C-alpha cells in the first residue's frame, strides 16, 4: 500500500470512491454516522454514463438483477407526450437501499475499513462525501424552493423514466423492478394544504394524474427537502465527491450518476487536485445547463407545455439532448440546445 485515504460519508458517492481507490492499491477508511444499509429520497435511476462506471466496478450485473433496465425518458404535460431514447445504451432503475447494499458488500470484500455509527468533522486531506450537509455548511445561503418526497408503488410503467410536469411540481417515475415503480415528487410547499398527510395527498394526486393505474398499492413513503442550485466555490485543496462537491436540483435525475462520475475522477487524479477539478467541470457545466432548462419549464405551465410539444415534434432533438447529457469522459456543453432551439418551428 502506498497511501491511506479517509472518506467521511458512506453513501453511494463515498463507497464508490472507496472502491475506485482500492483498485489503485490505496488503503481506505470510510467513516459514516449511520449504521447499516442507507436509504434516501431520490429518483432511483442511473443514467447510461453511470452504468458505464458500474461496469468498471463490476457491479452493473448485480444492479440490473435487483432493478430494471431503462431505455429512455418520457416527458408528460397534460395531453402532450415527448419520448426520448438513450443512444444505443441503457440506464438502470434500482431501489437506493438495494444499490447501497451492493456497494457496502463490495467494499467489505475489497478490504475497505467501514467505521459506522461515528460522526466526525472532515479534516484536511480527507474526502468529504457527506452530501447536502457539506454543501449547506459551505454555502448556507442556498435554499430549497421545493420539497422532495418518494413513494414506491406496485405498478408497471414500462422501460422509460417518466417526468410529468404538474402545477404543484413534478412527478418523477422510475421503473425499479417488475411491477415496481419509484415515484419521486418535487412539490412547491404552498400547493399542499396545511395539516394534510403528505402520503395521502400525494398518492391521491398521482392517482388523479394517472387514473389508468387505478388505486396504487403503496410500499413506502418518505419526505426530504432537496436543494436548488449548486455551489461554484473553488475546491482548493479540499477533496469532495457527489452532492458534497456539487448538488443539482433533483429534476435533472443526475444525482446518482454524478456521484459515480465524481468518484471515478477523484481516484483517477488522487494526487492531482487541479486535474480532478478540470476533469469534473465539463460534467458540472453540462448537467447544470440541462437542469436550468428543466427548471425554467417546471410547474406545469405554458413553458412545460411548450417544451414537451417541441420535443414531441422533434424526437431527434430530444435524443440529441439525452446523448449530450450522457457522456462519461467528456460531457458536451448543452449551450447549442438551449431554449431558443426548442422554440423554433
Description of the structure:
- The protein has about 350 residues and is of the alpha/beta class.
- The protein has one domain (about 5-140, about 230-340): FAD/NAD(P)-binding domain.
- Helix content is about 35%, strand content about 20%.
- The chain contains 11 helices and 15 strands.
- The strands form 3 sheets. The protein has a 7-stranded mixed beta sheet. The chain has a 5-stranded parallel beta sheet with strand order 8-2-1-9-15, with helices on one face. A 3-stranded antiparallel beta sheet has the order 3-7-4.
- The chain is globular and about 55 Å long.
- Residues about 330-345 have low confidence and may be disordered.
Structural shape: globular
H/E series: EHEEHHEEEEHEEHEEEEHEEHHHHH
CATH superfamily caption: FAD/NAD(P)-binding domain
Instruction: Just give the CATH class.
Output: Alpha Beta
Strand content: 15-25%
Mean pLDDT across the residues is 83
Which strand order does the major sheet show? 6-5-11-12-13-10-14
The number of helices is: 11
Radius of gyration: 19 Å
The CATH architecture assignment turns out to be 3-Layer(bba) Sandwich
Helix and strand content put the structural class at alpha/beta
Report the strand count.
15
Layout of SSEs?
Elements lengths: L3 E5 L3 H12 L3 E6 L12 E2 L1 H10 L2 H7 L1 E3 L1 E6 L2 E6 L5 E3 L2 H14 L3 E4 L10 E2 L3 H7 L8 E7 L6 E7 L2 E9 L2 E8 L10 H12 L8 E7 L14 E2 L14 H14 L4 H24 L5 H12 L1 H10 L14 H4 L3
Parallel strand pairs: 1-2, 1-9, 2-8, 5-11, 9-15
Antiparallel strand pairs: 3-7, 4-7, 5-6, 10-13, 10-14, 11-12, 12-13
Helix pairs in contact: 1-4, 1-7, 2-7, 7-8, 9-10
Amino acid at each position: 500500500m502506498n497511501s491511506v485515504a479517509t472518506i467521511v460519508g458512506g453513501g453511494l458517492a463515498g463507497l464508490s470512491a472507496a472502491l475506485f481507490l482500492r483498485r489503485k492499491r490505496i488503503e481506505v477508511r470510510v467513516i459514516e454516522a449511520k449504521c447499516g444499509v442507507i436509504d434516501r429520497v431520490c429518483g432511483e435511476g442511473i443514467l447510461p454514463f453511470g452504468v458505464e462506471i458500474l461496469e468498471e466496478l463490476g457491479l452493473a450485473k448485480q444492479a440490473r438483477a435487483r432493478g430494471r433496465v431503462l431505455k429512455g425518458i418520457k416527458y408528460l404535460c397534460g395531453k402532450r407526450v415527448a419520448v426520448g431514447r438513450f443512444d444505443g445504451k441503457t440506464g438502470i432503475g434500482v431501489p437506493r437501499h438495494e444499490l447501497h447494499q451492493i456497494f457496502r458488500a463490495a467494499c467489505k470484500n475489497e478490504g475497505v475499513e467501514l467505521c459506522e455509527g461515528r460522526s466526525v468533522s472532515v479534516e484536511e486531506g480527507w474526502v468529504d462525501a457527506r452530501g447536502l450537509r457539506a454543501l449547506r455548511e459551505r454555502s448556507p445561503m442556498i435554499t430549497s424552493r421545493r420539497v422532495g418526497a418518494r413513494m414506491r408503488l406496485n405498478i408497471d410503467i414500462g422501460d422509460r423514466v417518466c417526468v410529468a410536469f404538474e402545477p404543484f411540481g413534478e412527478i418523477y417515475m422510475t421503473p425499479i423492478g417488475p411491477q415496481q415503480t419509484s415515484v419521486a415528487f418535487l412539490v412547491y410547499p404552498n400547493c399542499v394544504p396545511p395539516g394534510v398527510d403528505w402520503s395521502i395527498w400525494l398518492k391521491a394526486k398521482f392517482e388523479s394524474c394517472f387514473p389508468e393505474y387505478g388505486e396504487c398499492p403503496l410500499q413506502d413513503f418518505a419526505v426530504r427537502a432537496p436543494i436548488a442550485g449548486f455551489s461554484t466555490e473553488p475546491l482548493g485543496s479540499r477533496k469532495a465527491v457527489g452532492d458534497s462537491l456539487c448538488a443539482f436540483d433533483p429534476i435533472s435525475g443526475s444525482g446518482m450518476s454524478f456521484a459515480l462520475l465524481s468518484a471515478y475522477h477523484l481516484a483517477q487524479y488522487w494526487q492531482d487536485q487541479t486535474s480532478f477539478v478540470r476533469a469534473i467541470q465539463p460534467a458540472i457545466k453540462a448537467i447544470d445547463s440541462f437542469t436550468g432548462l428543466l427548471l425554467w419549464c417546471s410547474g406545469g405551465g405554458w413553458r412545460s407545455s411548450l417544451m414537451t410539444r417541441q420535443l414531441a415534434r422533434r424526437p431527434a432533438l430530444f435524443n440529441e439532448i439525452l446523448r449530450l447529457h450522457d457522456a462519461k469522459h467528456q460531457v458536451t456543453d448543452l449551450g447549442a440546445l438551449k431554449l431558443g432551439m426548442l422554440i423554433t418551428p
